[in-house]
Structure of Alpha-amylase:
Amino acid sequence: MGNNDRANNERASDVVNPLLLQAFAWDMAPDSSHWRLLARNAEFLAACGVSSIWLPPAYKGHAGVKDVGYGVYDMYDLGEFDQKGTVPTKYGTKDEYLAAVAALHAAGVSVVADVVLNHRMGGEAVETVRATPVDPGDRRRPIGEVEEIQAWTRYEFPGRGGAYSDFTWDWTCFNGSDWDETRGISGVWLFEGKQWNENVDDEFGNYDYLMGCDVDVADPKVRAELARWGRWYVETADIDGLRLDAVKHIGADFFADWLPELRKATGRALPAVGEYWSHDVGELKEYLEAVPSTSLFDVPLHFHLHAASKSNGDVDLSRLFEGTLVDADPARAVTFVENHDTQPGQSLASTVQSWFKPSAYAIILLREAGTPCVFWGDLFGTPETGDLPAVAELPLLMTMRRALAHGPQHDAFDAPDVVGFAREGDDAHPGSGLAAVLSDRLAGAKRLYVGARHAGKKWVSVVGGHEPVVVGDDGVVELSVSDGGLSVYVPEAAKPMLDGAEEYRLCVGSGN
């Protein structure tokens, strides 16, 4: 293992209170400036407590400079070749991408790459393919006889000219497609001689097919090419970890093999987190059993936070963690409040309402279980569309995670409308400790044990605007919260550690 590999593994493992930042939103301006913005602000993001950063897909999409990155065209083109009407991607050129990664590494931030393997779009030519039309609502059920369609399944990448890989994708590399060029109609077709992978989600009968040309990850030549690409990408871009897109649509057996092989080939730890979009924590647990070397985003918790924000107070906060991954498997749960797919107007839109977002972020950032992921749009806003305002309290909560959210945790999730928790702090982080109380309805109060180490000390309200309190001799304190609000209290001596937190947004915003 080389020096760079050792550094990568240290970045992945030697972190107290890790924090992942999703460093993009859906409707960012397609001006190819994002890699430069991240490079300029790498040290600043590290100072905010960001230990790892999830970058958007870095390879060329079928919509060229306007492609967010999920309409995958050429995974070897990182903004280097003139394809799809552009050399740079939406986020910049290959050189700018590599420079951003290097700047983040220099600041001590791990880089998590977005890996989208389940579909391709934007082929150069159609091919005549024999295929069976299937019911879009149940992909197991044929709705017609085998027929010939014209599918956009030929990918030759003429702008790249064979650089890095001379692999050509044709219809045999895919299971199916959604378009017949001859008739100009959409649908779902299963190619003759192919079958949907059985190790996928059973929504729509079998959810192997998602969109575009569905990659057949069971085909030996495809598996070999994806293995070659994975090693090339990780080593070329000096990647530390992976975010795996839409894993419910790819056979779990593929990633169970591909990830360990990639780690062995590169000599890197490559922690991976998958996106498995489901309310059902049972499905997430089954996936983690099948692919034990990964984590998953806690989608059930996101839905609980979304529901609480829309309930008008008619939700039982004491049951907030029931049926969540962070409760069932905290070591492999990546918690989040919002992401690019949940923004207003997106296909999976389930936006947490703004009044509840400070409480939602307090829940994922200040507690000990799970690895929290902060969304770019919540931290810096989405000025391009105005659909998400920046969460004013978020910089402060991130600072508290780094400086104060340490030591044993004590929960008081014992009432439907007012709940709370406290962290005692520890000797390794002088001045640490905090307590949070949240309400989904009326103002109230909660008695919390904050630790005997704080007996007789004054704690101040840094979120919520309440009067200071004094911790009792028994380490218990009563804390107030406003209607539908959040209160966070910290030891008075810790207050100077939080100074300047309000500058987070201004510093990064000035780079846009």
